[in-house]
Amino acid sequence: MDEASAADAAASSAGGRWYTGMSSDNVKGLILALSSSLFIGASFIIKKKGLKKAASSSGVRAGVGGYSYLFEPLWWVGMITMVVGEVANFAAYAFAPAILVTPLGALSIIISAVLAHVMLREKLHIFGILGCVLCVVGSTTIVLHAPPERQIESVTEVWGLATEPAFVCYVAIVLAIVAVLVYKSVPLYGQTHVMVYIGVCSLVGSISVMSVKALGIALKVTFSGTNQLIYPQTWAFTTVVIACVITQMNYLNKALDTFNTAVVSPIYYTMFTSLTILASVIMFKDWDRQNPTQIVTEMCGFVTILSGTFLLHKTKDMAEGLSNSSSFRLPTSSSMRSPKQTDEYSEGIPLRSSESFRGPY
Predict the structure, then answer these.
(1) Which residue ranges traverse the bilayer (predicted)?
(2) How many domains does the chain have?
(3) What angle do CA 96, 97, 98 make, to 5 degrees?
(4) What does pLDDT average to over the chain?
């Protein structure tokens, strides 16, 4: 009887390891991160439709410097949806480490791909569905092996981590690369190379996430009874967050308006997540609290997510390639669409420089 009880206890322990292995803070962060992915994934599509509608009415696209989308209600609906998602994301960083929260953004790609298929007529290939499954598997792997949140008692402690030589060096390198991209690459290659706009968003985003996490910790400690708003470091982090978010919003709008959603989403996710994990490892030393097996497993989960996102991207290109090649075949019902319908199908293809100043959709 004792042996049977011991076996039952061992089985129960093994079965409940996932629950006991995640702290309550990590669970809260997980739930908030999942909610964030839902809202942000939907916001990509709503904003895209708003950008298209604004461009059709004004004739000036955001990708070439137009700001008519600011007067388009649909774009603001998408923006509000994104803000809700970002607030949930903001709260998630206060409870869980970035290495857990950030990779879960892959779920927003799945939502974005499905909605793009339904609302924007962007085809989702069968291998795109496989890509979605890979994203889910990779996200689950990371969730199960994420490190516990580092216990920080004040914003001054976060400031100390942010001003260590290693992270200061990282910030300096990021700012130098962003300056080169904005002043040299954007005027020359912004309309033809998706990596330019997304590079700016991702680099700036890695710094903004660290500041968001610092600000989230400050508010969390404040709500616990120790006021952190009296410290200048809290407001310094707030200023960085505002500046970074404005920059990200501007260049993300340009990327969404110029390139296909199915291209922007996975590449932006990949770069943003990779740089954020790197910044978090440097600043918060997440891997110091893990053994090599956990680190390798997390990296395998991350690579699985990357495989899924790029599979989504590649299958989208395949679908578009087949669609474009139909123009060289004998006329069919699908190739005899009206000009308006044809433009709706082709608007998301990465533009060449000669196409970047075309008229309204």
Answers:
(1) 27-46, 67-84, 90-115, 127-146, 158-182, 194-218, 230-251, 263-283, 295-312
(2) 1
(3) 120
(4) 78
Identify the H or E element spanning 50.
helix 24-58
Task: Count CB-CB contacts under 10 A for residue 34.
Answer: 16
**φ and ψ at residue 164, rounded to 5 degrees:** -70, 150
Residue 21 maps to a domain: yes
pTM of the model: 0.67
Q: Which domain holds residue 263?
A: 17-325
Q: Quick count: other Cβ atoms within 10 Å of Cβ 177?
A: 14
DSSP code of residue 62: G
Measure the CA–CA gap between 258 and 254, rounded to whole angstroms. Answer: 6
Count of C-beta atoms within a 10 Å radius of residue 31:
15
Other Cβ atoms within 10 Å of 294 Cβ, number: 15
Q: The tokens of 195 are what?
A: 């990596």
DSSP of 273-285: HHHHHHHHHHHT-
Confirm if 105 and 269 have CB atoms less than 8 A apart: yes
To which residue do tokens 């709500």 refer? 223
CA distance 240 to 242: 6
Token output for 181: 């991209």
Tokens of 49: 């439709």
Q: In this predicted model, what pLDDT tens digit does every residue of 239-291 receive, in sequence order?
A: 999 999 899 989 988 888 888 766 787 778 778 888 988 898 899 887 877 78
Q: Is 217 contained in some domain?
A: yes
Task: From 208, 264, 64, select the one nearest 216 (Cα to Cα).
Answer: 208
Q: What per-residue confidence (pLDDT) applies to 326?
A: 45
230 part of a folded domain: yes
Tens digits of per-residue pLDDT, 117-172? Answer: 788 777 777 777 888 888 888 888 888 887 777 788 899 999 999 999 999 999 99
